[in-house]
Amino acid sequence: MVQTEANLENQLITQLGKSGWALRPELNRYSLIVNHFRMLLNQRNADKLDGTPLTDQEFQRFLNEIVGSKSIYQLGRYLRGDDQFQGGRAQIQRDDGSDITLTFFDPRDAENNFYEVAHQIVVNDKYENRYDVTLLINGLPLVQIELKRHSVEMSQAFQQILRYRRESFNVGGSLFRYLQIFVISNGMSTRYFSNNDGELNKNFIFNWSDDNNRWIDEIEPFTASFLSPLNIHEMISKYTIFDADQKVMKIMRPYQVYAQKAIMNQAQTHPDTNGYVWHTTGSGKTITAFKSASQLALHTDAKKIIFLVDRRDLDSQTINNFNAYLPKRADGQSSIDRTDNTSVLVEQLKNSTDTLIVTTIQKLANAVKNPRYRSVLEPYKQQRVIFIEDEAHRTQFGEMRKQVNSWFKNAQHFGFTGTPIFKENIGTDGRTTDDIYDTRLHTYLIRDAVRDHNVLPFNVTYINTIHSKENIENLNGEVEALNVQEVYENEKRLEQIVQHIILNHSSKTYNRQYNAIFAVSDTRTALKYYDIFKKINSDLNVTTIFTWAANEEDNDEHQKDDTLTSRHGLEKVIDDYNDKYHQNFSTDTFSDFFNDVSKRMKNHDAKSPENNIDVLIVVNMFLTGFDAPTLNTLYVDKNLQYHGLIQAFSRTNRVQKAPKDYGNIVAYRNIKSKTDEAVQLFSQGDKAAFFAPNYDDLKLDFQQAIRALRDKVATPEDTNRLLDEGETAELEFIKLFRNVMSLQSRISVYEEFDWAQIETELDWTQQLFDDFKGKYATFYERHKARQKEKASVIDDIDFYPELLMVDAIDVDYINRLISQIDLSSPDARTEGVEKVKKALKNNSEPTLFSKRELLEQFLDSVIPELNHDADITSALNHFLADKRQAEIYHFAEEHRLESSQLAEQVAEYEVSQHENAKALGELTAGMPFKEKISAKQTIKNFIIETAKKFVMN
């Protein structure tokens, strides 16, 4: 028997009923959902309501308060709360003028909530939509499940959710704006992901798995494990992270959940035993560490939870990321002290209200060594303290760790590392990660991460730069007796490498959509490479950064040079940097220079190439702990091995939207044997997932895709006949060319890729591709237009518009740019403001036209006055609210209206997206008939325009 969607839905509902969800088949229209939510709200708060349920006006005020014009991110925070306020409750004024606080969700006690399931809910707005299965908590829709039959691609369910979000979920004031989690399934494959403002990124759709990282894919076991009432409550209240910087909710992946549970269990049941988490680099272990620290602070009796990081990791962008995830301190200040002042840390240790502290191991070691702090630190010798230690493979070995341990004798340590220390890669410390941390609590290897698409595989190319006349094999790093350094640093060799980078950089980075790091052996070589790039005068933006020794051993060899020391050389580099980016750094302000370089690498934006760094030359900096999804290429001219090699490679393999398919590694030394050893060690023997497909295999796939396309349409001109063959034929072409486009994007970054060879062997040229792409764009636009009119079969198509056009400058993009303005210095503010203004000037999005003048006022008048740690998004919302209120007041004065009534109508329209005819009548009461007709239309237009103009979503 063929599995139908209806059968799948009925089986799911039956299973949900058995697992604790009360069945509510009668709740099949949105109006019934709202009434049901109102009934449960009255029941839940019966004691506070004192026998008098909410009136219609009171309930509308409650809806305005809990939904209103809030973003999905704000609604998520409102639902859960944090250390500063209790979530799931709202205060309104009753009709008699008294205030009342009503609860609608308990984020802390799962049993103090009511769990129900409804299905086939019909919502009528501009289009009629019918939702498959909706999970309600206290009547509030928090989880939406969309199903497709077994034979249908699961992507169709994802496309359907995108359509629902546009057409009905996100309509102003709808309770469905509270949806926190989406689940999509065709019965055989099931995924989950978080709701958010703006675009939903397909890279953040997750498989659920067990604690051994085995997928739980089919809907029945998925329902038993993931969709139980307790787990859903925990995923919402415990395992969702709020990024205050990007203003997005991030639901945790399964391995992050299991790691956090293991840490909590260890802390509560085995407080005398340490533990560590091995999650591969790039899989989000720092976020797991943040969340674990927050939960330990809430649910253990530890006097302090101390989150330890290495000072080298604390660039300004990383500090912003830390602040984005961590709660504020009791005094409202940031959890992270930006200064090097140890006394600030001591004050935090002294303060009983600061349970969670973020500091560096260097600062803590200084506090322990300094006799002046003994009186404050003395109690901590015996009190329970829990340490969360990030990048444990390098921060927890050596003297500083021993000094800290000798003082905090009753401490429990939890470490996070992507590359543990084993016997094979043991250092001078002589200890492994297991020696220090006792127990491995959870493991998530690179093979798991690549399979789950949480990191990308590597495309490694080895370039032979040395051709010995004596045919000496493997000179690169293999022959100790020769003066290898002399060979490596030969000017001719370095120039050839620079020429190779210049020739291939655009193809490696997809026309500079991404950027690159160039790792070299020492500071002198870094300066040589920089000078060669400068001399060749390519249009690449290249700079270098490194730390220097006060008295370098080779100073005598450079006495006649302009740059006696590496520091002198870096000064000249910084002078060039200042000229290019309009800055004022020097080696005396190295930390500011470092922060600016870090910011430019992380904020690489193809729309503003003049602000970018294309290639950053480094020695050791940025090769570990640095996280930038826009980085996709590592050029290597130095020897790497074991964890250093994996850490360096892993700078490139963060997931980003297409066309980023791999982390590109271009090695100008023969480090293949070292690469194989490192991969063998850190993949536990399973190397298959580590590397991208080899070129010949990918070329065969490419050839087959081209053949399939041209069997359907031999030439671009042949696509014209598809217009007569109907929509199905058009869709087949779209699928076939989509596959060619994807494979061409992937294969073009390989060193072996050559258009002349492709033309000869595959009868495929760049011009032919461009011609087909033009036809593809035409069909794409045709189907996009159809999609607005109906739910067509186009839902099962994954388009690649980013291969045809650049991202649109829309409200979400401007919002993101504004929130990312760096407030740390006047120059940084100016640069951020100019970037937003330039985007506004280049805007072609109609919804932004009415906001441009307002936003420019905000940029010119508010941004310069903000504190360095201010919440820019909050400041913008306050600014817009004040401007809206002023505009309402002036309009009311001009038209002799009651401003408070007019403000209520604007607020109501933001929620309902419909004007209130009765209220319009009240506003114009007493006017002559003809004047009233005209006034109503004028007021209506004002309400609609004002509701749209002053909201950034």
Features:
953 residues, 46% helix, 39 helices, globular, 6-stranded mixed beta sheet, single chain, alpha/beta, 22 strands
- Spatial extent as radius of gyration: 30 Å
Number of strands: 22
- Termini distance? 46 Å
- Strand content of the residues, in percent? 5-15%
Low-confidence stretches: 476-482, 788-808
Largest sheet: 6 strands, mixed
Walk across the major sheet and give the strand order. 1-4-5-6-7-8
Instruction: List the total number of helices.
Output: 39
How would you state the average pLDDT, rounded? 84
Q: Which geometry do the CA atoms define?
A: globular
**Helix-and-strand structural type:** alpha/beta
DSSP helix fraction: 40-55%
Care to describe what's here?
Residues 476-482 and 788-808 have low confidence and may be disordered. A six-stranded mixed sheet has the order 1-4-5-6-7-8, with helices on both faces. Helices cover 46% and strands 13% of the residues. The protein is of the alpha/beta class.
Secondary-structure blueprint:
Elements: H1 5-18, E1 22-23, H2 30-44, H3 46-49, H4 56-66, H5 72-80, E2 89-93, E3 99-103, E4 115-124, E5 128-137, E6 140-147, H6 155-169, E7 181-185, E8 190-194, H7 219-225, H8 229-237, E9 240-243, E10 248-251, H9 254-269, E11 275-279, H10 285-299, E12 304-309, H11 316-325, H12 342-350, E13 356-360, H13 361-369, H14 374-377, E14 385-389, H15 392-395, H16 399-407, E15 411-417, H17 433-437, E16 440-444, H18 446-451, E17 458-462, H19 475-478, H20 484-488, H21 491-508, E18 515-520, H22 523-536, E19 542-544, H23 566-581, H24 590-602, E20 615-618, E21 631-637, H25 642-649, E22 663-667, H26 672-682, H27 695-712, H28 722-725, H29 727-747, H30 755-762, H31 766-789, H32 811-819, H33 826-841, H34 846-849, H35 852-861, H36 872-895, H37 899-912, H38 917-923, H39 929-949
Parallel strand pairs: 1-4, 6-7, 11-15, 11-16, 12-13, 12-14, 14-15, 17-22, 18-20, 18-21, 19-20, 21-22
Antiparallel strand pairs: 2-3, 4-5, 5-6, 7-8, 9-10
Helix pairs in contact: 9-10, 12-13, 13-16, 21-22, 22-23, 25-26, 27-29, 29-31, 33-35, 36-37, 36-39, 37-39
